[in-house]
């Protein structure tokens, strides 16, 4: 086991690595790394248990760098621990894995993208919920910056963690006083931080973040706590270098080579101590699976697609214990409550906190679960950044946006989700599905379990008639032609509830002797552009009903 002197030596090596790599890159955030050096040394080389040869070991302790601009010191810690072999001095180079902010392609040691501030704590909740569901003992450490705790998403996470007694979640606040343009909101008022975090029900500790003995003592206390812990570490930005420490104007500024050499005169350059990282204790966990029972519907029945979503999701959950339903306190409307009724252990209430819900879904998906998160589609726009970062993180989960479009009528314009299709189509490799009746909802939802990436299913509040047989197939990047003739004047394209309006229009026009083609565009992304072009060439116009 390394001693305090050795941990201080490692902290100084991490400082030098961070300065050298950012100077080589000509950009980066070295001063944000220097404030966290003792914290990183204590975590990676003393406290955490992880298999340096296997980043996918499900029992590894997890670390999330929520203040993602301090990426150079994370890369340095991983390199010094023997986890990665990347050249630190190729930081931010096009040919390097070491991006300016963490992304999950560095030998899988980094599971989620960070740097859009305020999101790491929610993902940490997802990790720890996964640990509890799998009866694993691993702990999740989240390093927060003091600027980012102004983000509202942080407080969504602060509220929820104590609700679920997530004692395996340890947040560390690097309170280094300075943000990008000047002092942070509370600067070094650590008592006020303590007051705020304690009020949410967290175990809250104040330490000198450059005193390794105090860091280790706080980490040991957190391991024995019965609720989530946040360690408020009073630090100084640029610590260890006199012309940087606690000085404004250095955020996001790399040192010149001359400045680097000047800094190195103040930072010791010891030999890297021989370190033996603690390996985690293996826990056996098995996903429980059983035969999937599908629901049969009769043509002509009136049923909402949101109701079919809930029933299908409940059937999935019954057949596979890795299926989880999350909801932002509208489960009786989205119908995800069907899961809560039959398999309550597979239902997670996130309350009215959509940003937190998406972050938690990302965390759960990275630990082997298949999350299905649902809320009203109009409220998903506030979680767009979480969705964007999830896409960058190669997330694998499904979102259901209920009560979509103008069809909710009486609730008014503030409740009409009109941007959701565009938001989800904009995400890299996303899948956007818009079923029109109960069987198509069931078929498309079943497919999402096997599809990778972010999947979005759009459902509506009003009832719609069942128009498809139960065994109808709905392949991706395809559509259904429901009405067609050789005399079609136009193509009328609908999806979801608008398909039913298109069918009404067809009947009206047919009575007037006008033939049109009707398409159900249930797969909005990916889109069968080639066949749609063909339809356009066969008629005089394409009309989309949105």
Q: Could you explain the architecture of this structure?
A:
It is a single chain. By secondary structure, the protein is an alpha/beta fold. 36% of the residues lie in helices and 15% in strands. The chain is built from 18 helices and 18 strands. The chain has helices at 4-25, 30-34, 37-47, 71-80, 120-133, 152-163, 190-199, 212-224, 257-264, 305-319, 331-334, 337-342, 354-366, 384-392, 420-425, 438-448, 497-511, 529-538; strands spanning 62-65, 140-145, 169-175, 203-208, 229-234, 302-303, 323-327, 347-349, 370-376, 397-402, 431-433, 454-458, 464-465, 480-483, 490-494, 516-520, 523-525, 542-544. It has a seven-stranded mixed beta sheet, with helices on both faces. A five-stranded parallel beta sheet has the order 1-2-3-5-4, with helices on both faces. The chain has a four-stranded mixed beta sheet with strand order 14-16-15-18, covered by helices on one side.
């Amino acid at each position: 086991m390394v001693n305090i002197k050795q941990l201080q030596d490692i902290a100084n090596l991490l400082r030098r690595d961070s300065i050298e790599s950012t100077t080589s890159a000509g950009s980066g955030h070295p001063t944000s790394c220097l404030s966290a050096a003792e914290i990183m040394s204590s975590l990676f080389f003393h406290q955490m248990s992880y298999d340096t040869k296997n980043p996918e070991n499900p029992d590894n302790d997890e670390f999330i760098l929520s203040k993602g601009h301090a990426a150079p010191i994370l890369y340095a810690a991983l390199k010094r621990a023997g986890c990665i072999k990347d050249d630190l001095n190729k930081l931010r180079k096009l040919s390097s894995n070491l991006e300016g902010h963490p992304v999950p392609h560095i030998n899988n040691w980094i599971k989620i993208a960070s740097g859009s501030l305020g999101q790491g704590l929610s993902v940490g909740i997802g990790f720890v919920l996964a640990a509890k569901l799998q009866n694993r003992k691993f702990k999740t450490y989240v390093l927060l910056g003091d600027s980012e705790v102004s983000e509202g998403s942080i407080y969504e996470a602060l509220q929820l963690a104590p609700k679920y007694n997530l004692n395996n979640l340890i947040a560390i606040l690097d309170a280094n006083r300075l943000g990008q343009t000047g002092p942070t909101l509370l600067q070094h008022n650590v008592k006020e931080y303590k007051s705020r975090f304690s009020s949410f029900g967290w175990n809250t500790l104040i330490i000198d973040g450059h005193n390794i003995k105090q860091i280790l003592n706080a980490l040991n206390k957190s391991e024995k706590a019965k609720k989530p812990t946040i360690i408020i570490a009073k630090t100084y930005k640029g610590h260890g270098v006199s012309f940087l420490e606690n000085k404004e104007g250095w955020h996001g500024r790399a040192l010149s080579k001359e400045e680097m050499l000047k800094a190195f005169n103040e930072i010791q350059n010891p030999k890297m101590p021989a370190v033996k990282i603690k390996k985690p204790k293996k826990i056996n966990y098995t996903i429980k699976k059983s035969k999937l029972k599908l629901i049969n519907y009769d043509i002509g029945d009136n049923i909402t697609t949101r109701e079919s979503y809930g029933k299908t999701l409940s059937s999935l959950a019954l057949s596979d214990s890795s299926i989880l339903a999350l909801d932002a306190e509208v489960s009786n409307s989205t119908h995800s409550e069907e899961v809560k009724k039959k398999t309550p252990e597979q239902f997670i209430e996130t309350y009215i906190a959509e940003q937190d819900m998406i972050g938690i879904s990302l965390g759960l998906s990275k630990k082997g679960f298949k999350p299905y998160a649902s809320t009203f589609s109009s409220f998903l726009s506030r979680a767009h950044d979480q969705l964007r970062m999830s896409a960058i993180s190669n997330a694998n989960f499904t979102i259901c946006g209920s009560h979509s479009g103008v069809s909710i009528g009486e609730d008014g314009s503030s409740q009409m989700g009109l941007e959701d299709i565009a938001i989800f189509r904009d995400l890299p490799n996303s899948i956007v599905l818009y079923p029109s009746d109960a069987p198509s909802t069931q078929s498309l939802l079943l497919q999402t379990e096997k599809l990778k990436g972010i999947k979005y299913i759009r459902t509506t509040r009003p009832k719609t008639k069942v128009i498809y047989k139960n065994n109808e197939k709905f392949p991706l990047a395809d559509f259904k032609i429901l009405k067609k003739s050789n005399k079609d004047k136009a193509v009328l394209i609908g999806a979801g509830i608008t398909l039913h309006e298109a069918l009404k229009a067809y009947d009206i026009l047919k009575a007037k002797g006008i033939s049109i083609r009707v398409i159900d565009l249930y797969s909005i992304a990916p889109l069968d552009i080639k066949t749609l072009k063909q339809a356009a060439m066969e008629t005089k116009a394409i009309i989309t009903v949105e």
